[in-house]
Design brief:
The chain is mainly beta and 133 residues long. The chain contains 2 helices and 11 strands. The protein has a single domain, classed as Beta Complex (Metal Binding Protein, Guanine Nucleotide Exchange Factor, Chain A).
């Protein structure tokens, strides 16, 4: 898959992935004014324009990357595993995504609801599954 930010300053290449998910945690909703829709790509991700990527360390184990020119949200990365969840919107051409999972479902506001049948994990279940330690 090949993607890019809004201004083309940052490009990303990774293997094809078709599963996408949504994170309803407060940080993701504050960051993008809604859930983070992302594609989990692991560590096999190559960036072009790396000098245009700015990061914000949002927790002890994770950072968020964005284009320093146009502000496009690029990724959420689990630092210990170097595991990237890339913003779905980067990929306008490529595989058809399948909505598989919603995380922090207990943090989702009542103001919206997805119709898709997805796996749903609470905050406690997410930390049990993904948190280091």
């Amino acid at each position: 898959m090949q993607g890019r930010c809004l201004c083309n300053a940052v490009t990303v290449t990774t293997a094809d992935h078709t599963d996408m998910d949504a994170c309803h945690c407060g940080m993701c909703r504050r960051w993008g004014s809604g859930p983070l829709m992302s594609v989990r790509c692991g560590s096999d991700v190559q960036f072009g324009g790396i000098d245009k990527i700015a990061t914000f360390r949002s927790s002890e184990w994770a950072e968020r990357g964005f284009c320093s020119v146009c502000g496009t949200h690029l990724y959420y990365r689990l630092i210990p595993a170097n595991d990237f969840s890339l913003s779905m919107g980067l990929f306008q051409e490529g595989p058809e995504f399948v909505f598989r999972e919603e995380i922090f479902i207990d943090r989702k506001p009542r103001s919206y609801e997805f119709a898709n049948a997805t796996s749903k994990l609470t905050e406690a279940e997410v930390f049990a599954k993904y948190a280091p330690g």
